[in-house]
Amino acid sequence: MIYDYYVAFASLFIFTFSPLSIYYYRAFMPESLLLFFIILSLFLIIKWQKERKTIFFNLSIFSFSIALLVKILVLFLLPVFLLIIYTSNNDKQKSFKNILLFTLLSLILPVCWHLHAYLIYKETGLTFGIFSGGFLKFGTMYDWSNWGFYEKIFKRIFILLLTPFGFILFLFGIFIKEEKKENLFLYLWLILLPIVVIATSKGFYAHDYYLISFLPMFSMIAGKSIRPLIPMIKKINSKVLITLFLFVILLPLSSYYALVGDMYIKGGLYKIKWNLIEMGKFIKENSDRNSLIAIAGTPDITPLPCLFYFSERKGWYLKKDDLKTEDDLKKIKADGASIVATMEVNEFPILKNYAQKKPNKVIRKNDFLIIIINEQE
Asked: What is the percent of the chain with per-residue pLDDT over 90, rounded to a whole number?
């Protein structure tokens, strides 16, 4: 639909063997769902562009809306879809109407959800949404002027998103002239990369998976690099072609994955806070499955929602102002919490004092404190 069969096959190869794609499609993360709805929405809008059936347009809107619900960051893709709509019709008035329709309808569900999430945040401190303090992903001048930031993003694209082989194909593909104006959306997608990375630099610096929403675009441009070879490919026996492909590409690539794994472990590209895992384990062992827990801490030291994941428990987050007196502790108990836990004992003197008074209700390690508050006094 965008390119021919051979380009599609090459693009699929890059997409499938991307280290980020492999890892996050197998991890308990929303990235696989996000990519599914991005690609589905793109497929449907292009199908609408070719066949002019309203059902495809409406389904594309719905799919993109779900993608926004999964991760609001992919709002940056809205101009990409709008460009597809704009270039699909010579009647500019009709194009404008479709652009307006796509924009408004795709935003209804995400806007309603984030308003709901904000109300929950005001009440509990959870589902922190986009603009709440302490969790902002937007960058600062310090981030933008730091050369190490750009170096890290480039390494992730080169090593984890595309692999060196895929990156070379991408460079070839980007210089091959685009024959159809309908495919210009790919280059808008590419132009948006530095804008989005700089605008949300804290998020991109902290998490490699932020790049994964750009993988379809990179894969398609990289796949386009084989177009000059298509006449030659058609002349080669399919069995010979597959054999060459396996030995020339897959074997070196398997060695590359071993290198990437080694870099992850030794280079600290993706560090794990083992104390969070250990603390979650202790909470799980000392509470019932339906117990509620209250986590006291600051976002930089005790990131949400890690402890809820690791302990497999529900609950809420406590800031410094939420836990200063014994009355605050009693209120937390009255609200249904069976455990109060923190990794920042010095930030919460009331918990430190409580632990000294009632050591039999405390599980204490060097780097965390768990207080059981649901038992009878």
From this structure: 23
pLDDT value of position 248: 59
CA 127/CA 95 separation, integer angstroms: 37
Contact 329, 354 (CB under 8 A): yes
Residues 160-172 have a mean pLDDT of 87
d(CA 342, CA 319): 11
CB neighbour list of residue 239: distance below 8 Å, 6 or more residues apart: none
CA dihedral of residues 170, 171, 173, 179 (deg, nearest 10): 130
Taking a C-beta distance cutoff of 8 angstroms, is the pair 368, 275 a contact? yes
Is residue 340 a contact partner of residue 332, using CB atoms and an 8 Å limit?
A: yes
Q: Are 157 and 211 in contact (CB under 8 A)?
A: yes
Phi-psi region of 129 (alpha: psi -120 to 50; beta: other; left: phi over 0): left
pTM of the model: 0.70
In terms of pLDDT, which residue wins out, 62 or 355? 62
User: Residue 265 above 60 pLDDT?
Assistant: no
Mean pLDDT for all residues in the chain: 80
All residues at 6 or more sequence positions from 81 whose CB lies less than 8 Å from its CB, including other chains: 41, 42, 45, 60, 64, 102, 185
- 349 prior amide bond cis, ω within 30: no
Q: H helices of 210-250, where?
A: 215-223, 230-235, 238-245
Q: Which of 102, 124, 121 is nearest to 113 (CA)?
A: 121
The one-letter amino acid code at 352 reads K
Is the CB of residue 106 less than 8 Å from the CB of residue 160? Answer: no
Q: Note the pLDDT of residue 260.
A: 59
Tens digits of per-residue pLDDT, 115-148? 887 787 777 666 555 555 445 566 665 566 778 8
Phi–psi pair at 315, nearest 5 degrees: 165, -155
- Distance CA(253)–CA(166), nearest Å, equals 10
